[in-house]
Design a protein that fits this description.
The complex is a heterodimer of chains A (228) and B (154).
Chain A: H1 5-12, H2 18-30, H3 32-57, H4 62-85, H5 90-101, E1 103-105, H6 121-129, E2 141-148, E3 154-160, E4 163-169, E5 174-181, H7 184-187, E6 190-192, H8 195-207, H9 215-223
Antiparallel strand pairs in A: 1-6, 2-3, 3-4, 4-5
Chain B: H1 5-16, H2 19-35, H3 46-73, H4 85-89, H5 96-101, H6 105-116, H7 121-128, H8 132-150
Helix pairs in contact in B: 1-2, 1-3, 2-3, 3-7, 6-7, 6-8, 7-8
Chain lengths: 228, 154
């Protein structure tokens, strides 16, 4: 099989799938010249990435921050108007009454502190499978809403008996952010779904690059296993 | 939107090179996006929508500049990749900015979107508004030119 230069480049970019990917991988493995070509593509990508990396680290100038922040106040207003119109952010519409229900069965024995950075066990399962729009109010882990962050990753705000937080799906799994422990005095019995959930919702709004996913977008993301 | 700003700045500086011009382009993009907010479909990606806005603003700006410049300096085509070998050799072999600046706009944006911004070919084609095959061939040509300009040790 003859491998075109476009195919080699696409292979280096991870763009090929299935039979074509296997064929090119085999050809590259068998041919040092092709392998060198793949490596040259990757080296170029790495060099370009390194060249532009400082921009990502640099502080954002105030004028841009201010321009974007006008959006924040506008977004809140939009949000209220949207809710009045029955506009999509259904995750919120369903989650808020669920919060109002406010009493959540507390105890559950998941062991997620094992890994401080990634969700484990039932929490990971709920993040994978539960849809905010249909989450039962008494579920041990409730997903409050889903959104995308500035990197395009899917993130989900959740509330459980012993803690609440935000989890964003990266290559390894659900990375945890903004964890808050539940009040230990409440953790053994019932918990008021109140202040900590509100704090998580605020943190989610700050991280989100756009409004919460609606039920259809959430279901579509779940089918893709929350991959970007 | 705040969370997107570092990425938008990176894309802008790749497109226009000059950091002040790049931040101007960012600011125009933010303002345009806020005005056009109603056109964004909730549930779709905000980031690719904003990249598309930035890219279109940049094209508009480049075209109007091109027209202005053409009246003074003649055809800009001479600044493209087909420069003489001697000039290429004097490029210092290391300067990514200068190498990128020598690519035709359509190749530069393809290279930036895929190799710096990390979009898939399909997503990059959607941002640019061209077929995937077109994007792919611009990318290949842009890459070849960069490798030639930067030397094999890219």
């Amino acid at each position: 099989m003859t491998i075109s230069r476009e195919q080699v480049a696409a292979f280096a970019d991870g763009e090929l799938v299935g039979e074509e990917a296997r064929a090119v991988a085999a050809a590259v493995a068998a041919d040092p010249a092709l392998l060198a070509e793949v490596e040259a593509h990757r080296a170029l990508r790495a060099r370009l990435a390194a060249h532009f990396a400082p921009v990502m680290q640099a502080p954002v100038p105030d004028r841009l921050r201010d321009a974007a922040l006008q959006d924040r106040s506008a977004e809140v207003i939009d949000f209220a108007a949207a809710a009045a119109r029955g506009f999509p952010p259904r995750g919120w519409r369903v989650a808020l009454p669920a919060l109002a229900a406010s009493l959540v069965l507390a105890f559950l024995g998941f062991n997620a502190w094992q890994d401080r950075h990634y969700a484990q066990g039932p929490l990971a399962g709920a993040l994978d499978q539960q849809l905010a729009a249909t989450a039962p109010a008494a579920a041990p882990v409730r997903v409050l809403l889903s959104f995308r962050d500035g990197e395009g990753q899917f993130c989900r705000a959740f509330s459980a008996s012993d803690r609440s937080g935000i989890a964003c799906r990266d290559e390894r799994g659900w990375r945890l952010h903004d964890l808050q422990a539940a009040d230990p005095r409440q953790a053994s019995t019932y918990r008021q779904a109140g202040s900590s959930d509100a704090a998580i919702m605020a943190a989610a709004q700050a991280m989100a690059a756009g409004p919460a996913l609606d039920a259809a977008a959430e279901a579509a993301a779940a089918r893709r296993h929350w991959r970007r | 939107m705040l969370a997107l700003l570092p990425r938008l700045r990176r894309f802008a500086v790749g497109l226009v090179r000059d950091p002040v011009d790049a931040d101007d382009l960012c600011q125009m993009t933010i303002e345009r996006a806020l005005r056009a907010r109603g056109q964004w479909q909730p549930g779709t990606r905000l980031d690719s929508w904003m990249y598309r806005i930035m890219r279109n603003l940049w094209i508009d700006e480049t075209r109007s500049r091109g027209r202005r410049a053409a009246t003074f300096v003649g055809d800009e085509a001479g600044l493209g990749v087909g420069a003489s070998g001697a000039q290429e050799a004097s490029l210092g072999l290391a300067d990514v900015d200068r190498a990128l600046a020598r690519l035709p706009d359509e190749q530069r944006e393809a290279v930036l979107l895929v190799m710096v911004e990390g979009w898939s070919y399909k997503e990059a084609a959607e941002i640019v508004g061209c077929p995937m095959g077109t994007l792919n061939s611009r990318l290949v040509r842009g890459r070849d030119a960069l490798m030639a300009l930067l030397g094999d040790g890219a």
